[in-house]
Amino acid sequence: MISIVIPTYNRGDLIKRSVESILKQSYQDIEIIVVDDNSSDDTADQIKEINSSKVKYYRLDKNRGACFARNYGVKKSIGEYIAFQDSDDIWDSSKLEKQLEYLISNNFDIVSCKIKIIGEEKETVFPENSHIDIDEIYTKNKLSTQTLVGKKQCFLDTPFDERLPRFQDWDLAINLVKKYNVGILDEVLVDVYMQDNSISKNPGKAEKALQIFLEKYGTNKRARAQYLRLIGVYRLQQHKDTKKYFLKSFTLNPLDIKLLVDIVLSVFDLEKLHYNIYLKKGRFK
Length: 285
Prior knowledge:
- About 40% of the residues lie in helices and about 20% in strands.
- By secondary structure, it is of the alpha/beta class.
- The chain folds into 2 domains: about 1-195, Spore Coat Polysaccharide Biosynthesis Protein SpsA, Chain A (Alpha-Beta Complex); about 200-280.
- Strands 1, 2, 3, 4, 5, 6, 7, 8 and 9 form a 9-stranded mixed sheet that branches.
- It holds the Pfam family Glycos_transf_2.
């Protein structure tokens, strides 16, 4: 059995569609665990309208965040395998079947797949390629939570870090790739709909999460340089001072031309130009 864990918070308008996309999976030995993070909307009523014994609903007594909700769902599950879904995303009907077959036939512990990110203005596919490198994963994530299918014990032994307000999937990916045999199925099996109020658009939460990354993985020189640079970028988005972070990053990675441009623009207080460059690149969307 595969247990699918869905954390949700005030997604009453979307949660039903998400659950129904799972119920239409070609692989049917499943349970769906919806963990409501103390929503104030009609999420509970929407779940009650779904007529399926496969759906189990748990409401938390207070808002604890998506990481806590996912860990809670894993502990409540009875399946041998775990998958994660977000309340505003849609799965291809063959997702679980294809990924489980790929996992078993290649002796993986965990498998991911590609996603189509549907934004307000464009669509992109993530990741660009399916190669996983243990060194690269510290500086560039390739796994998204709603793509994962893996052995339950992996997620019990390596839970989500509940301190993180953002980049939870990246942090989990680092730890999973370090400990287990992880593969990516080179096929788009998830549609991700980017919401206006998504935490993945919140630069303040990104900055806070990257500070935690520095604590956890900062001994890796290349990774530390990347986190410092990203903190600078997200501080720029918030119109905060960036010089210190770009300079520290450059001292660790002096061959990065992009960093040199960041330093010049920040040192000479060309914030408006600097901001607009990243805005045109779509970095702040």
